[in-house]
Amino acid sequence: MAWIGDDTPNDHFSWAYGQGAHDLILLEWSEPSHDWVRNQDMDWTYDGAVELNQISDTRNLEFDVDICNQFYYNGRDNWNTNVPYSKAPEGSSFAEEEADDCTEVEMEMSEPYRIHNDGVYFWDQQYDSEKSAVSGAPTFHKNLENCNEFWWDCGSDWTGWMQKKVRQQ
Questions:
Q1: C-alpha dist (Å) from residue 106 to 32, 41, 88, 137
Q2: What are the pLDDT digits (tens) for 20-35?
Q3: Residue 35 belongs to domain spanning
Q4: Does residue 168 sit within a domain?
Q5: Which of 23, 41, 53, 145 could cross-link 154 (Cys pair, CB 3.0–4.6 Å)?
Q6: What span, in angstroms and rounded, lies between the C-alpha atoms of 48 and 129?
């Protein structure tokens, strides 16, 4: 089931996937303990792919899914992607998540030149399901970060969000 959100919440940077058809979808399976967040239909323009090729010697990409305004989701080890990643998805540190009030799972790519404009990319990530619900929450955010080789100088493109709209147990 997909919830209402926005695939174009801000102006996209030239190095980010460049069109508004990508989607962030929450899939609630019949199993009560796990959900899947799907970040799908990510594709780059020709110019975006050229830029990634040009910056590949000095920059990295980080794909993030954040679940905010909640206390009941945790990232799992189950995931699937066709993004040419260099580091598998993993959760942020507890201290970072506590400070941000968000669960964050991130996937790193140290060779941005491997992104091609004729590819359509996706990332499916499994999470523990909610134990209790809060009306109008949580909010799901997807980000793409362009970072230096040490991963501390980053530009962030907020590429979409959605909010769970129903109360669920």
A1: 24, 18, 8, 21
A2: 556 777 776 556 677 8
A3: 5-163
A4: no
A5: 145
A6: 35
